[in-house]
Specification:
The structure is a single chain. Helix 3 runs parallel beside helix 4. This protein has 6 helices and 5 strands; from the N terminus they run E-H-E-H-E-H-E-H-E-H-H. The radius of gyration is 17 Å and the shape is globular. By secondary structure, the chain is of the alpha/beta class.
């Protein structure tokens, strides 16, 4: 396996939605960086994957950058997963990816389930345009203002 960071999409509900390629990558890398070790243990156990895991969540992601860069520079392949879906999409990982890109290190995506496109497909909206906003504010006033701004764009 070539050295670099592999962004591996994980199931968004049903563990059987993981791709064969994702399973192969998770078996072959030197370590898996994960948002929640408990959640990832469940996935790995289901497929008898015994690759070591390293926590990498929003509270320690910045501290993991040097570790990732060092290991990749030493010729290692690492995977990055989140609890569900693709890393960096409303989940941790963007700092690690940006650092790898800035350092000129390879970053590859192993696509899979996507909550964004699944929700869009289930909506029945025929317009091919949509806006992905991520998580809205928890406070109702800020959330309402943002929804009004989005409605003004005229995109379904």
């Amino acid at each position: 396996m070539n050295p670099g960071l592999y962004l591996v999409a994980t199931p968004i509900g049903n563990l059987e939605d993981i791709s064969l390629r994702a399973q192969a990558v998770l078996r072959q890398v030197g370590a898996i960086l994960t948002e929640d070790t408990r959640h990832t243990h469940t996935l790995l156990a289901r497929y008898a994957i015994q690759t070591p895991i390293i926590s990498c969540h929003k509270f320690n992601e910045a501290a993991r950058v040097d570790l990732v860069l060092t290991r990749i520079r030493q010729g290692e392949a690492l995977a990055l997963v989140t609890d569900s879906g693709m890393p960096c999409v409303s989940d941790p990982g963007a700092r690690v990816v940006a650092a790898c890109r800035e350092a000129g290190l390879p970053v590859m995506a192993i696509p899979g389930p996507s909550a964004v496109t699944t929700a869009f497909a289930l909506s029945g909206i025929s317009d091919p345009r949509f806006v992905f906003e991520g998580f809205l504010a928890r406070k109702s006033g800020a959330r309402t203002r943002r929804l009004q701004e989005l409605a003004a764009l005229g995109i379904p």
